[in-house]
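Sample 1 of the test manifest.
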Amino acid sequence: MSRDFTPKIIYFMCGWCGTGGSETASAYHLCYPENVLPFRVNCTGSLSSVHVLRAFIEGADGVIISGCHPGDCHYEDGNFRARRRVATVKSILDSLGLGEERIWFRYIAHGEGKRYVDTAAEFNDYIKKLGPNPLKERNDT
Amino acid sequence: MKGSILPFEKDLEKSILAFLKTGLDKECFEAVLIPHKIPSDDNYAYLLIKDKTLLQGASPLPPVIPVQGAKAVSALTRWGPSKKKILAVMHPCEIRATVELSKLRQASLDNLVFLSFDCPGVMPLSGYVKNPGEGDPAYQDARQKWESAKMRPVCQTCSEFGAPASDLHIGLLGAEEGNAFLFPASLEGKRIMDKLGLETSASSDGWEREVEKLKKAREEKRRGAHQSLQTRVEGPDKLLETFSSCINCHNCMRVCPVCYCRQCYFDSDAFKLPPENFLARAQKKGSLRLPADTLLFHLGRMSHMILSCVSCGTCEDACPMGIPVAQVFSLVAENAQRLFNYVPGRSKEEPLPAAVYREEELCEMEKPYLETYARTGERDASASENK
């Protein structure tokens, strides 16, 4: 692992709690690593598995998905459905040895700006330790 | 379970056809959907037979799956349920795929009666078509021994060869020479057998024992096959090597019974991208293979249909490049379906895993928030703030 490896991280977050968390973080002037790219979706339940896979195959070193806490979903059950979808994607990547550990799922509430920033920083450090995603160097994906 | 003994007249196929003919005569069902040899004599196709004299050319036990039966049923009932009763003779995996399609509202099971049989597996389609004269004896041999390296790899490790969610089932395992075991697997099946005056008093214990035994052996074999496959495809390098001969024909998707979408996402405008996108990717990687997104197609297709994958092997039959698609999908499907304790086609009532959820499940999916980390994070955040 080279010392100056800056991972590219895609942070999918739902439009209600996840982005709410980032708003709270900004209100408190909390910082998170600049290489974490936020990507807002309406609800994690509406996040297609292909978007996660596309990010994962085409250059992201890691992907985090944040939705509302269980019971908090604006659409009642989007986060539960997302959890099943994330579990399926992780299971596919695990069966084929593509590094399912590079995908994280963590609930973040609107008021949890601190938790949002910590998650981004923690994941960033974690991926730095893991090194670059081998798929992103391949030209034949 | 109780059933009746179906004695052979000349061979098993003939006596199944005689049974179907009586069924049509006594109006237990109005039509039969059954594989039939095509005129060129080297393959089979599904026929919806109304005229019972045409039944004699049909093949209830074809040595190949030319078109997945679920596709035939879907073509028949996509518009709506049939008003007349239709009996479909299909392999267990085809019936299971049909059940999955009905859950996806692409087929209707109303007024549809399934007749299944203990499936010895089928042969690779392209190999059979090249030389049917050699394939037929090999298939007969597999039906005797229940173990043949000439059957398709996924068939050799299939443990769902017995009665699926069908109505009538023909048990071949553990039956005496010249006999088969016909039993009702649903109330509808029982009604048909009663109407035909077939006794359902013979015990199926012998059949069940044999099925259990073979199931165990097959499961064991599948574990071994998956392990050896994993050593060949696991990891980015090996996986990309496996799929490197893919010519992007998307045949695997087109023949897949569960891939029903009229417009596949991977053929859609979402994959029409400006040249700049490809140039940027080529810049980053040094070069880019075109058409791009081969791995994304296979993994994305997996993420869409893997929970309903019945491992019927039709995708592998259709692959012109001989990529072990079905084996890879079977490996992934087993792990993904175990996660939800779901067996596709096992029951008509069980909902699709993607359609339901439980509040208390998959808790290990969420990464626990570490308080110790929270403190470091605070320090980092305040440090960067002070800059």
